[in-house]
Write a sequence for this structure.
């Protein structure tokens, strides 16, 4: 029997609640696919800090390294906002990404038909929207050196970060974007700020060159400010958006809202050892423990795990269908609630998807 090990990192806030729903799904997939899943849970983020004094405890990092894939809930909360920068829960995410070499972050913004009216944009603008943001994840200004805050001679301080990309970093993320575009609509829009930042001028040059090996993919370049505007003006012009770490951080949040709720969107970080899968949303401490959180992004992240880390793409298809079918039945968590919807809590939503999945496969 094929075995896979998953490091489960629930984290903070609503993290543990949504992960609990994902666990229900994993159980069903295990029996349906006749595979064995070895789940090991580790603390991360604020929970890691409370347990060991560090947001990414050694034991958690080791567990993640040994696993075939990592499933993460969310990290962060007001409780840890005033502690030292280097110990903030968010640092755990950066550590995991970088230590596991997960340089490619795939963030789909795909709208479910049933939720078309949940978007703040007009129906015709977002109907059938299906964008994939390919964000570089282990380089750029997030990791560039020098960085820090220094005190000047006059006693005032200066803060600085460095935007840096090497040719090989640009090529390897471009490869991911072009290959994934070949399986989609065959269009890549590379987003930079080449008119101002030399580093992204290089980015544009390398990507243009790289595209020559992919004659079946249409490449377009766009400045990031224009892209932010185009995403709300006419988002359906995009298929794959290829961009840097920071631009991808911002644009993927923007793209996610086109689909109605950030609570719906999964993500995959791949390229290195295993892969890490997590909902795009944060830990939402204000609604933690209330059974309000939308578990669908986490459940769909499980689908991405099966597709990208275990090469079991059919499980991803099943999960998308199961979620779609629950939405078509009218069930909604608070974040996607609209008139006539049947309100469901976190647990119930998990059970509903689980029940659909049982019937499906
Ligand atoms: C994300 C988050 C993280 C990021 C933070 C929490 C470090 O915003 O995954 O998009 O900036 O990458
Ligand atoms: Mg972000």
């Amino acid at each position: 029997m094929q075995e896979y090990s998953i490091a489960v990192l629930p984290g903070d806030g609503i993290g543990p609640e949504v992960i609990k729903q994902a666990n229900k799904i994993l159980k069903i997939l295990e029996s349906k696919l006749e595979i064995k899943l070895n789940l090991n849970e580790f603390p991360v983020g604020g929970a890691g800090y409370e347990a060991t004094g560090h947001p990414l405890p050694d034991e958690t990092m080791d567990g993640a390294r040994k696993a075939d894939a990592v499933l993460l809930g969310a990290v962060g909360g007001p409780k840890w906002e005033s502690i030292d920068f280097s110990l903030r829960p968010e640092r755990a995410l950066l550590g995991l990404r970088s230590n596991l070499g997960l340089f490619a972050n795939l963030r789909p913004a795909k709208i479910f038909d049933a939720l078309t009216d949940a978007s703040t944009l007009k129906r015709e603008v977002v109907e059938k929207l299906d964008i994939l943001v390919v964000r570089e994840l282990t380089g750029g200004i997030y990791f560039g050196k020098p960085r820090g805050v220094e005190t000047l001679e006059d006693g005032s301080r200066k803060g600085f970060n460095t935007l840096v990309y090497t040719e090989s970093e640009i090529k390897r993320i471009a490869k991911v974007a072009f290959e994934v575009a070949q399986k989609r609509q065959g269009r890549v829009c590379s987003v930079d700020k080449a008119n101002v930042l030399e580093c992204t001028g290089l980015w544009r040059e390398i990507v243009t060159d790289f595209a020559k090996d992919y004659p079946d993919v249409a490449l377009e370049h766009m400045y990031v400010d224009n892209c932010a505007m185009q995403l709300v003006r006419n988002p359906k012009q995009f298929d794959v958006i290829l961009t840097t770490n920071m631009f991808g951080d911002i644009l993927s949040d923007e793209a996610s809202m086109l689909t109605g709720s950030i609570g719906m969107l999964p993500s995959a970080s791949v390229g290195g050892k295993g892969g890490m899968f997590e909902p795009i949303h944060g830990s939402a401490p204000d609604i933690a423990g209330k059974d309000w959180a939308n578990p669908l992004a986490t459940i769909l992240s499980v689908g991405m795990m099966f597709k990208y880390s275990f090469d079991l793409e059919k499980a991803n298809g099943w999960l998308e269908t199961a979620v779609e079918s629950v939405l078509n039945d009218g069930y909604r968590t608070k974040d996607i609630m609209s008139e006539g919807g049947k309100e469901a809590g976190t647990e119930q939503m998990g059970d509903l998807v689980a029940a659909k999945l049982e019937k499906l496969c």
User: Anything to note?
Assistant: The CA atoms of residues 149 and 261 lie 36 Å apart. The chain has two domains: 1-103+271-361, 108-264. The two ends are 19 Å apart (CA to CA).
